[in-house]
């Protein structure tokens, strides 16, 4: 599969998630089999471009190509300028966010709120595509609510504007993340356009990925929440799609090493003070389905020193190793012995 001039190694992508898919996490997902990753959304308002938060979100130093930046906003001119600014800083793909359902984003008429104004959507797409000489992609939802689904019209506007790829989350803005993703709309969009379409929503297992590709005819799948704490899901899905067979659960020793590398990269990226605090959610996701995980998470959240955080993580995985060479995917019924 290709995006513009870039040939991707597979069709299993990691979704952009605010507060999750920072550079260390994207690097890890790519290392573990993701064929493509997009940054957290960066605000188009030029007053925010040089803020610490936005600078981190668009930092791709040393990242595997292609380097993709997602931008969010409601003003075509601002979005065009933001696209140019990020391309000057090394972005090789620009992704436009019209999928975020979060209230504070939609209240600013950004994200999926834009789907209510198709004329504005067209203006934004044309402005951004015309502003840069790199591929521009679009991530969107099936509509504002179930009574106002317009994914087919948005897809047609996107293709006419020169958008290189569509990613469609199979829910409306009103759905948020509740209920089941609808794949029939993704299938209809894929049948209606000649550009690549990526299916997003509720892809949690290798079997589900294969089924979604079959149902929708999509060119790729995008995995979001299921990758939190389980970044090796990308190699598991890719292997299953290629062979029809499952990989075994990861070795405890491998995951301990991956977590150590991830946490060290996380601290270096955010600094010690913020790093130890923002790492807590990642650690919680890693351990949540493992024996003793919930008990460990509660205690770990009180730690405010990076080295101590690393040490207790190592201790937790020493306990996991006592249960077997490979991770035991189950919710603990009894706390592990101290």
Helix and strand topology:
Layout: E1 2-3, E2 6-7, E3 12-14, H1 23-31, E4 36-43, H2 52-57, E5 68-72, H3 76-88, E6 93-98, H4 103-106, H5 118-131, E7 136-141, E8 143-145, E9 148-149, H6 151-161, E10 165-169, H7 184-192, E11 197-200, H8 206-216, E12 220-223, H9 233-243, H10 252-270, H11 272-287, H12 293-300, H13 306-321
Parallel strand pairs: 3-4, 3-12, 4-5, 5-6, 6-7, 7-10, 10-11, 11-12
Antiparallel strand pairs: 1-2, 8-9
Q: Which properties best describe this structure?
A:
alpha/beta; disordered C terminus; 338 residues; 12 strands; two-stranded antiparallel sheet; 8-stranded parallel barrel
Overview of this structure, please?
By secondary structure, the protein is an alpha/beta fold. The chain has helices at 23-31, 52-57, 76-88, 103-106, 118-131, 151-161, 184-192, 206-216, 233-243, 252-270, 272-287, 293-300, 306-321, and strands spanning 2-3, 6-7, 12-14, 36-43, 68-72, 93-98, 136-141, 143-145, 148-149, 165-169, 197-200, 220-223. It contains 13 helices and 12 strands. Helix 1 runs antiparallel to helix 10 (252-270) and helix 6 (151-161) packs parallel to helix 7 (184-192). Mean pLDDT is 91; it is low at 331-338. The strands form 3 sheets. Strands 3-4-5-6-7-10-11-12 form an 8-stranded parallel barrel, surrounded by 7 helices. Strand 8 and strand 9 form a beta hairpin.
């Amino acid at each position: 599969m290709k995006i513009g001039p870039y040939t991707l190694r597979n069709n299993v992508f990691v979704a952009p998630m605010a507060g999750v898919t920072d550079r260390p996490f994207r690097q890890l997902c790519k290392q573990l089999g993701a064929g493509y990753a997009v940054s957290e959304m960066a605000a188009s308002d030029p007053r925010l471009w040089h803020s610490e938060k936005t600078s981190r979100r668009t930092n791709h130093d040393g990242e595997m190509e292609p380097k993709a930046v997602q931008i969010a906003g409601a003003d075509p001119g601002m979005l065009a300028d933001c696209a140019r600014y990020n391309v000057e800083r090394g972005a090789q793909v620009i992704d436009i966010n019209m999928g975020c359902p979060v209230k504070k984003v939609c209240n600013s008429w950004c994200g999926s709120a834009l789907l209510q104004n198709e004329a504005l959507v067209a203006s934004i797409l044309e402005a951004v595509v015309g502003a840069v000489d790199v591929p521009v992609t679009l991530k969107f939802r099936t509509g504002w609510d179930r009574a106002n689904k317009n994914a087919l019209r948005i897809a047609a506007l996107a293709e006419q504007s020169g958008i290189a790829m569509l990613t469609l989350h199979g829910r409306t803005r009103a759905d948020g993340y509740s209920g089941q993703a609808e794949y029939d709309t993704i299938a209809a969009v894929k049948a209606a356009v000649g550009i690549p379409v990526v299916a997003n929503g509720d892809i949690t297992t290798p079997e589900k990925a294969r089924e979604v590709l079959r149902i929708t005819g999509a060119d790729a799948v995008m995995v979001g929440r299921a990758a939190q704490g389980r970044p090796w899901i990308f190699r598991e899905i890719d292997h299953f799609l290629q062979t029809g067979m499952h990989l075994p659960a990861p070795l405890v020793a491998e995951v301990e090493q991956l977590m150590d590398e991830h946490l060290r990269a996380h601290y270096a990226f955010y600094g010690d003070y913020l790093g130890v605090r923002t790492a807590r959610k990642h650690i919680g996701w890693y351990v949540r389905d493992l024996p003793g995980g919930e008990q460990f998470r509660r205690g770990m959240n009180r730690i405010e020193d990076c080295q101590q955080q690393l040490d207790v993580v190592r201790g937790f995985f020493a306990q996991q190793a006592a249960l077997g060479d490979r991770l035991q995917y189950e919710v603990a019924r009894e706390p592990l012995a101290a």
